[in-house]
Design brief:
Largest sheet: 6 strands, antiparallel
Shape: globular
Structural class: alpha+beta
Number of strands: 11
CATH topology: Jelly Rolls
Bound molecules: fe (ii) ion
CATH architecture: Sandwich
Distance between the termini: 44 Å
Helix content: 10-25%
Number of domains: 1
Number of helices: 3
Order of helices and strands: EHEEHEEEEHEEEE
CATH superfamily: q2cbj1_9rhob like domain
Strand order of the largest sheet: 1-9-6-11-4-3
CATH class: Mainly Beta
Length: 202
């Protein structure tokens, strides 16, 4: 009897969680990040961005600021759930370290294609992301399989994966996965919390 199995080898798991945080958290964390922008210069070292305000990479250590503790818990839960779903294992890696920064972008700001070198997983949480005509404000992930892009089922296989963000969305992906963001052109802004998870099993 014929029996078919499709092995999805070398898949690239991108995790999208809707309503990962509440509207109340979004308002609180947005106010916190706006406050940081009012008091600090943008940390622009080693960034792939054009324009925008970026905090330093100690955002999750600022537990005294409103919303940060809850935001950190939202990120940590997503990381654990991602690992469970991707590995199918119940035992967690012995070391999961998460660092974070936050950002505000406005009209015409964008990020050039980049990876988060050195990390295992990277994530972005959208606290403020008003509806915009696609692709404005979207994040695109590029296929890491260059050979596939060259030849495989040309016209039928995607070369990128786009996420159209909404407030409360959390996107989690392998840190090696190259991505970039599209600019938008209205008078609003976009406020995100970005994090890197460094994960290992001893
Ligand atoms: Fe990034």
């Amino acid at each position: 009897m014929a029996a078919d199995t499709l092995l999805q080898a070398f898949a690239t798991p991108i995790f999208l969680r809707k309503n990962a945080g509440t509207p109340e958290l979004n308002a609180t964390i947005a106010a916190t990040i706006r406050g940081l922008e009012a008091r600090h210069e943008s940390d622009d070292a080693h960034r792939a961005h054009q324009g925008g305000f970026y905090t330093k990479g100690d955002f999750f250590e600022k537990q005294d600021l409103p919303g940060v503790t809850e935001m950190r818990a939202v990120a940590a839960k997503a990381v654990v759930d991602y690992i469970r779903q991707v590995t199918g294992r119940k035992d967690m890696p012995s070391r999961i370290q998460i660092i974070s920064w936050s950002a505000i972008t406005r009209a015409r700001d964008y990020q050039t294609p980049h990876v988060h070198a050195g990390a295992t997983l990277s994530g972005v949480y959208y606290a403020v992301a008003p509806p915009r005509p696609e692709p404005q404000g979207c994040i695109d992930f590029l296929t890491p399989l260059d050979l596939k892009e060259m030849t495989f089922l040309k016209g039928d296989s995607n070369t990128y994966c786009r996420v159209v963000p909404e407030a409360g969305d959390l996107v989690l992906f392998p840190a090696y996965l190259k991505h970039y963001t599209h600019p938008f052109f209205d008078d609003g802004d976009r406020i995100v919390v970005v994090f890197n998870a460094h994960i290992s099993r001893d």
